[in-house]
Design goal:
heterodimer, A: mainly alpha, 3 helices, about 65% helix, B: mainly alpha
Chain lengths: ~180, ~375
């Protein structure tokens, strides 16, 4: 039932109309259905978020999860590190100056590699952000749907009651 | 005709016919001499002073006026009949019994009318309460949406900051930050939009409540109008039943008085000739109807606000007989006498029965007036 619930009686606390006291909204299960649908959706979204964090190797604060060895972020970092090592080794073998090719052609090759890696990292994180954003949007939508279901069901119950004339019986005149 | 011009106002009038007759007895004394020995109803003589003395509301002595009481020497049985008829026929209990079903229906409908109004108020109060609670749901949803949007935006910004902290490439970090800010903004706006929409729904609920209350109010008014119609019908039925009861009693009273049917004792008392035998044919009938039709039953004074003292039952009887006598008809014959009575019953009494307040009219002696 909509509205606050009296902790003593468990009955809903209706809005006072200051005429004949409170009138309980005609019974409807829209609130129960809405709550159930909302909890199901939130649970599914939470599961989806956990899977996403696990897949990308991240935690909810955007930090890399140190306990996740096979996340997409870890794999990407690992691959990029190996790529830079291979580039360094190749440059040393080819006689380019510097341990990391800090000047000249070596630096140019390294910058090219870093740019490509940055693009890959940005794309990975963008995908991660989009998925997390979709989950948050889903939570908002679920909350909205919960309120919409509850309010529309309550309105329908009210209209049904009005159509059926199921009002509170008036006190006998003169009593 | 205004009541004040009739000589006896509402506050002064006696309650019933019994009081009238008692007043006649106490003020005029000898009824027999009044009607009979004084020749008040002698055919052709309508100006006898004694007759004026019993005209209630007229110029003569009125009820309650001071005159020396005299013991009546007329036949007591007839007076007793009149008294009993007057007292019994118009008693409140008899009228109440006759109108009991209609009165009960009127009471029930009046109760139903009041209850319908109370229920309409209750219906509108219920709608107020229900729609108010629905508005509460909308407002709660609005708050949750706004709060959820802010929380989601804050969470997204925090995620973005965490991601940026772990990125050495400032270009990548910038890209991540931009994405985070854009998404946080979207989530915040989305929350606000949802909140605004929910608030608008709350306002709509308020307006819809007013409309629904208006509908209930109109339905209630329609129901009340229906009940009022039934109530009016029931009240009319009650009045009709009361009138019928009164008319029935009055019919008996008039029969006792000799206006309808035959009452030789009263004929004798009133000085009406009777008992003779004579022929009575079509010619005499036409002559009689013509003569009676010219009798000025309703004088100008009765219609114009002058002194009301002519529309009196006894006076009318006297005029009728005088007119018949003047036309040369044998007024002592039973046929003529019955024809006069029939004429009065057919042409005068309906006017009386149609009067809404017969008691009042009767005691004022002006119930046969045209207005």
């Amino acid at each position: 039932m909509a509205g606050k619930v009296d902790p003593n009686t468990g009955q809903p606390i209706a809005v006072s109309n200051n005429i004949y006291g409170n009138a309980t909204i005609p019974f409807n299960n829209s609130s129960t259905l809405a709550h159930h649908a909302y909890r199901s959706a939130v649970n599914a979204l939470s599961n989806q978020q956990d899977e996403t964090l696990q897949y990308y190797g991240m935690n909810k604060n955007g930090r890399i999860d140190p306990n996740n060895l096979y996340g997409q972020r870890q794999l990407l970092e690992r691959g990029q590190g190996e790529q830079l090592n291979q580039l360094t080794n190749a440059q040393q073998q080819s006689g380019l100056v510097g341990m990391y090719g800090s000047k000249g052609l070596g630096q140019q090759q390294r910058n090219t590699a870093l740019f490509a890696q940055g693009q890959e990292t940005a794309q990975l994180l963008k995908d991660f952000q989009d998925r997390m954003n979709a989950i948050k949007t889903g939570r908002q939508e679920a909350r909205w749907q919960k309120n919409a279901t509850e309010s529309s069901g309550t309105l329908q119950a009210i209209m049904n009651a009005i159509s059926a004339g199921a009002f509170t019986p008036a006190a006998p005149v003169g009593s | 005709m205004a009541y004040s011009s009739m000589g006896v106002g509402r506050s002064a009038r006696p309650g019933n016919i019994a009081q009238i007759l008692a007043g006649i007895l106490s003020n005029t004394g000898d009824v027999a001499s009044m009607f009979h020995s004084a020749g008040a109803l002698t055919p052709g003589d309508t100006s006898n002073a004694s007759l004026q003395g019993v005209r209630i509301g007229g110029d003569g002595p009125r009820i309650g006026s001071s005159s020396t009481p005299q013991a009546p020497d007329n036949p007591e049985t007839l007076l007793q009949m009149l008294m009993q008829q007057a007292m019994g026929g118009t008693s409140r209990s008899a009228v109440r019994a006759a109108t009991a079903p209609q009165a009960a229906l009127v009471d029930a409908l009046q109760g139903q009318l009041a209850q319908t109004g109370a229920q309409t108020d209750q219906n509108m109060a219920d709608i107020d309460s229900w729609m108010g609670q629905l508005g509460g749901i909308y407002n709660k949803g609005a708050k949750q949406a706004a709060r959820g949007g802010k929380r989601a935006a804050k969470s997204t910004a925090k995620l973005g900051r965490g991601l940026m902290a772990g990125i050495a490439d400032k270009n990548v970090a910038q890209s991540v930050g931009n994405t985070s800010a854009r998404q946080a903004g979207y989530l915040r706006v989305q929350g606000n939009e949802a909140a605004n929409f929910a608030r608008a729904q709350g306002r709509d609920a308020g307006r819809e409540a007013e409309y629904l209350k208006l509908v209930q109010q109109r339905l209630g008014m329609q129901q009340e109008a229906d009940i009022r119609t039934q109530l009016a019908q029931a009240q009319a039925a009650k009045v009709s039943a009361r009138s019928s009861a009164k008319s029935s009693d009055m019919g008996q009273l008039l029969q006792v008085l000799g206006l309808v049917g035959d009452n030789p004792a009263l004929d004798k008392m009133l000085g009406v000739p009777g008992g003779g035998e004579s022929s009575y044919g079509t010619t005499e009938g036409n002559t009689l109807r013509s003569a009676l039709g010219n009798v000025p039953v309703f004088n100008d004074e009765d219609a114009g606000g002058g002194t009301v003292n002519d529309a009196n039952l006894q006076d009318i009887i006297a005029r009728m007989y005088a007119a018949a006598n003047a036309a040369g008809l044998p007024v002592d014959s039973p046929e003529v006498k019955n024809a006069i009575r029939s004429y009065i019953a057919a042409n005068v009494l309906p006017g009386y029965n149609a009067l809404p307040n017969k008691d009042y009219k009767l005691q004022n002696g002006s119930f046969l007036t045209t207005n």
